[in-house]
Write a structure and sequence with these properties.
Helices cover 29% and strands 31% of the residues. It is built from four helices and eleven strands, in the order E-H-E-E-E-E-E-H-H-E-E-H-E-E-E. The protein is α+β, with helices and mostly antiparallel strands. It folds into two domains: 4-60; 78-172, no CATH class.
Amino acid sequence: MIPSFENMEALKADMEKNPDSYVEGTTVYLEDIKEGVHYINGEWVADETMETKANGDITMSLYEMNRQLINQLPDYNEEAWNGAKEILREYIEAHPNNYFMAYGRELNYFTVFHKEDEGEFESLFDALKICLDSVGAVRSFDFDGEAALEIWVAPSIASSVTCLYFFPYDDGVVTYRG
């Protein structure tokens, strides 16, 4: 349940009483402006993804709920990267494509990966890991249940985690040999 406060003054008063309750990414709802706010870099920032229903309940998008949960996870360590490697291996085996894309809409980020044969898995994984590390600290790496891998990272340029998708991209690459 997302905490609710009458206004910003009431929220700030509660912060003084309970400072440990407010960490980076904390979300609360302000009744006077009928809007959710996030605690980011020491400031409260409005969240347009929250909606208030007529009965006063707050709804959040699934993406925003995932963001709130994953924002609290630790950065990947070597053991977690080993698990990610196995997830990627299974995914590549299930999708025998030559091209893959890593795409992050919020960051306007994309990278296309080219893999010609099965023996290139290790170099593909290493390249993906280098690219992800250049974006930020990886927090989650998993199959999204549809057609892509969902990779949550904490970018060094942003205050909250964001999701990158890794998916087959053969249909998106046209090679012309004239």
